[in-house]
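Q: My collaborator sent me two sequences in one message, no labels, and asked for predicted structures for both. Can we handle them in order? The first one she listed is below.
A: Yes, handling them in the order given. First sequence, followed by its structure tokens:
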Amino acid sequence: MTLHALFNPGAVAIIGATQDTRRAGGQPLHSLTHLDYTGRVYPVNPRYTEIDGRPCYASVEALPEPCDLAVIAVPAAEVPTAIEACGRRGIKHAVILSAGFREIGERGAALEDKLQRALQTSGVRATGPNCIGMMNLRSRVFAGFGAAFRKQDWRGGPVAMISQSGGFAYSIMTYCEEAGIGFDHMVSTGNESSLSTLDFIEYFLEDEGTQLIAVYMEGIGDGRRLRALGQRALETGKPIAVWKVGNTRAGSRAAVSHTANLTEDYDWYRDAFREGGFIEIREIYDLIDAARVFRSHKRPRGNRVAIMTTSGGAGVLLTDACEQANLVLPPMTAPTLDALKPVLPDFASTANPVDVTAAIAQKAPEFRAATLAVLGDANVDMLILRSYPGRDATDWAHHFAADAAASDKPILISLTGTAAASAAWLPIVDAAQVPWFEAPTRLVYAASVLNDFTRKRGQALEAARTQSAGMHSVPPRLPLPPNAAGSLDEVQSKACLEAYGIAVPRRLFIAAGAADTAAVCTLQFPVAVKVVSADLPHKSEAGGVRLGIAEKNDLKQILTDMHLGVLARRPEARIRGWLVEEMASGVELIVGALNNPSFGPLVMVGMGGVQAELLRDVARRYAPIDVDTARDMVLSLRGAPLLQGYRGATVCDFDAVAQIVSRVSRMIADHADAVAEVEINPLMVSGTGAVAVDALIRVR
């Protein structure tokens, strides 16, 4: 079902209507009847025969026509009955302002269960309960109550706001309004008993008038759908600016107590945001800056930035910030240098950043000529310009607006003073949709998110053009034992890895109780000996690992001693036998994969040992991934120089590592219904390959 009728109702019923505009049933009635809404409005309340000269109906059944929307403001216990009545009268959408459901605990949760049953049987799709409502400024629909709805003269604009906190949404909109950023829509989702944040994101992604979607998010229940919407955002070119909260342990508890939304581990959200068309914001100003830079439809072709300034200090600051944001400052080309030479004084800097000096600060023609030269440079994808501070700034702004409109490259202006000090000419630039910023670092943040979104969109569109039916046609079969459940032992786990072409050390399995170890003579010593038991996923803790055994003659006694030692520590463990393996050397990595019930399969790679656990030096992506993406993951690790011959060490085989990470990602994606977790720890990487020294697979 489309949500068009929810946001653009032809007729609205106010269930629990009252003449007191300070109450939840009175404010929306007043707004819808006094503030240019052109549809029909029907108060419903058996206590009144009329309100403000308008007939008031005793029940939903008594309404003269089926409405598109019902705004419900009755006590919580009466809401399920009201929803059932809406269903019988053909009302398909509701905004439930009433509170007192699962957010108050066990008693409210039972009532919310009753409400959900009413929603399912009635066919009504509801916003809320426990929300402040929604507004659509285009249709003048104010279906809510509170401070946001008492302010009826919102600026309006191409941003849609979705918030899992009602009151804070008003704060966000207020700050943005003062900064010149307008919202056409705002919806408070409350407990999301019916319609969810994801439903509204999906609606606004397809809404022609919406250019950017802002989301205040505490938690969602369907990570896969969140990821799919992120991909759709890239397809439509509409960024989703998401402010994810409840990421710490204390914050997570606060989110549960606030709207009863259980928050997943933040890492899963972060990875979803990274792969899709999301912009993660950390404060209100990030949203303002993102909205400002995306208002223009110009997108950079790459991450090459030119900085032009009248202040050397500002140029250095901007350069540092750009480098930290992965924005590259290329040198100016020869034609640009030739164009700048007659315009700038000899002591100007024509490197990048281009410092035109204070001598040009009062010469608008020369400043304009320099701007056009730098903007036209073939090496430049995006221009950062410190604004012209001269006396004739207004004339300059008119010429600049025309020059900016003629270029397909984004231009971002860093103000030399405050917005108030630039009030004479700033509206001219603003009308030309050139984004401007008072703080240089905020400008670089905006340039960075613009570049990141554009890059991800280009990659997604290219992948859609070139991707075949799948990364591989027929997934390899896993040699899983019959009725496998829980952890596989190491022999079984490595057999699964080999099915995907992942190298493991040469090895020999010795069954429990077998005394003959003569077959190990085919192995190259030194060797490692490990207990094989599905009951012992952490073999070392049970004394089930011995490394560096140099002599074959020592092996039989070592097996006997280890057997006794393991049983002494874990007498309940079922020992299937012993694995004798050739020792491997190199740099240790950890490669793993998980299947999250909500978000789906994910692969990770990190530096081995304490670097993964203590420093969290890991990279994560949702599976499956190709080899190039896997290589980028490895290169992103802080410990990557250890694989690149740091201080004369051996250069490791990056291709082998990337192949293994990609293949593990395929395994977890191909067999998501069977495999819960894959862990290779360590993966030993040398200059000529990589082998999975230890492996653990958990099945569902």
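Q: And the one she listed second?
A: Here it is, processed independently of the first:
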Amino acid sequence: MISEESEPSFARGRRYVAFLLELVSLHRRLFVIAVAGASVYALCTVASSIAVEWVIDNVIVPRFDADTGFSVDTSTVVAGGALIIGIGVLRGAGVVVRRAFAGMCQWRVAQTLIDRVSNRFVTQPATWHRRHSDGQLVARAGVDVDTTVQAMAPIPFATSTVLMVVVSGAWLLVTDLVLGLVAITVFPLLIGLNVMYQHRVDQHFDDAQQALGEFSGAVHESFEAVQLVKAYGAGDRETERLSLMAGRIRDARVRAVHLRGTFEALLDAIPSAANIGIVLLGAARVRSGDLTIGELSGFVYLFSLLVFPLRVIGYAMSGLPQAYAGYHRVKATIDEPLDPDPVDSIGTTEPPVAVRLTDVSFTYAGEPTPVVDAATAEIRSGTVTAVVGPTGGGKTTLVDLIAGILPATGGTVAVAPGGRAMVFQEAFLFGGTVRDNVTVGLSTDTLDDAHVWQALGWACADDFVRALPDGLDTTVGERGVTLSGGQRQRVALARALVRRPTLLLLDDTTSALDPATELAVLDNLRAALAGTTVVMVASRPSTVALADEVLYVDQGHIVDHGSHDRLMRDVPAYRELIEAFETDRAEPAGGAAAGGGS
């Protein structure tokens, strides 16, 4: 829990100070310049009240005084005007510097935090991502970072306000001890009010930020699965679920706003009442000769100017609980230890063996039954091996173990040295251009368009890419929405092929292609990447028949390993499965599905 009702105020204050110092340290120079500008503003604010006092006593009052002949020297008027204008210009410059650099500091800090969160996402292996909701992770790099940096903007002004209060408090006491004591007693009262408010509102903002993160994650996932939601008629259920989550955010924020309303009212009432008392008491002291009119005017003017900066301190303090709640979530992601990378557990083999599995097992955490159990096999270099088995038999998990996406919970996986590439059944494309999607992660200095077109040709994707409005520069939309399923699979395959991997892993990658295109793609792989070892999950008989060897997997076990013809002859269960695949493909629905590669 970020904050507890029982936590002492000083402990919470120390926590917030450490939080702010940590943010400031990210871009200290910008913050120091912003504070310097705010300090100039603060000192000029005190100086402006002194200038008002001087002008009233030396320019305005003499014009109504018969003893001076109702006249003032021109030089005095010019000096008064120059004094006020000069202080005003300097004060305005301080405001510009403070706002400009405070804004730059705020959003540079946001950029730094987003970069750190994103880098953590990238460096964490797939095992870590499987344990976390995509929507929650998006919220950490978006909503939570935005909430965190909201605390940055008012801090330079708030720090300069402390300077202003100290300097002005001293000047008020010097001007008139009695009025000064009355005025400065308001300062601790307002600060105490801020502390009390912050203490009570802390938990509400924490609850609201937590609920907002959960809501953002749920919305993201609901939009991602919008087709599934519609297909199962779950729209009303999703609407109700999201409405309940939004209601929790609303309730927490309403409670916080209710407290803030009371807080704002008191911040208005206390200084106003104090100002009335200062005017009344000051008038009496002017009558007694203890104050001049100019001194009283400057006194009231300065006290009025201090009210708004003191409210900024309250505003800054009121935003700290919510900002800290967001930062707590961001920091938890950044500081979370890296999961062991499954790739590091993979051993190496020597040709002619490309992949060696020795008693490999994998069991998901909390599950009693292994998905892959004591799998042992060798795959020769340069061959095409099909992984075949019934649904849920462990095919994809086996390929994930070879790819280093999942760590073996038993046995060893060894792969020949060289590059590995994997293409998933659900091809993921970024929202950029075709070129961006093929070359992602590669240096464009050594990879020109000729290499991109070559890879697209191997994947039988060059023809339809040339027909796109802008060719390689065509934007494919988020997740490749403007392309068909078969087109997305071929672009994703080209992304793998442009790297010329020594081991290519395909998880039913050609499932959305028609048989003729699939055959052309596999022929291209054999011709262009003759030395590449291909391991592919396959469920189409025509695909299986093209493989050099077949790994027959059932219930996590490698039942047999050999040629397709031998398995058809010697393994009845395999023969029945292939015949079932052929029967399924012969159905009208299957035939329609097979044509989806356009």
